[in-house]
What does this fold into?
Amino acid sequence: MKLVFMGTPDFAVGALEAIVEAGHQVSAVVTQPDKPKGRGKEVQMPPVKQCALKYGIPVLQPIKIKAPEAVEELRKYEADVFVVAAFGQLLSEEILTMPPYGCINIHASLLPKYRGAAPIQWVILNGEKETGITIMQMDKGIDTGDMLMKCVVPIGEKETGESLHDKLGEAGAKLIVEALPLIEKRELIPEKQKEEEATHITMLKKSLGHINWTKSAAEIDCLIRGLNSWPSAYTYYEKKTLKIWEAKPMPSTEEGECEAGTVTKVEKDAFYVCTGDGVLQVTEVQLEGKKRMRVRDFLLGYEVAPGMTLDKQIESYGG
It folds into this structure.
């Protein structure tokens, strides 16, 4: 098929590569403008742009895709379909109806659950056991269009937001290549989403990572894994931010109750923190201004002892 691909981050790169390698004609790629990143604020190209240039595909980077000049530029390509994967801008109805086959989205959840931003992270945060990819026909709503194809991706016990991102990127690339010829032949039967089953999620904020030790060890573990690698889960150690990168929920074996956030035991490779339900075994951390390190290395330079309370701000939580 002759198509225009719209996407921006790493998640969309695999799909673009798979579409090109499958022999489809990608007339243009639309992505977000280059932006300064990092401490040096060096201007960087989005991953999808880098991929497009590798294949010699023309790149469009409109500040607003709905702007009249951007719409007219899209029209020039006379594409059969627009394929969208984590583009980052809402499309107008004029764009949605421009190509004969409309706009097809690669969405990283099993719709209608997890509509909106950051579905990859939220399924882990909420303790889901599986997620997947939905190929959908876009409409003017946010992830409300008819579903065309799905594939299920299981969520492992140690799954992180980063590892699931990579799995879903691969699954999305494979599924869109399977879907495009069927879309062209109009052999896929659109399935309406059940509104009563829909869930809506929000974008991730750094403040979401602030660990509430009154939650259960299992919930905190989901937070740590879901927010790995961004924005990360954190607590406070001697008034400095302490990110927790790896941990494991354990049943409480201590007699009596302990205050949530209190260190109950310290071993060579781990320390244990009391939570609202169970104990969290912490094995990898990162102190403010330092690199990520295993707890065995952290303990060589910093003291963690039973009875120490992490996060003195715990009383500020609203629940």
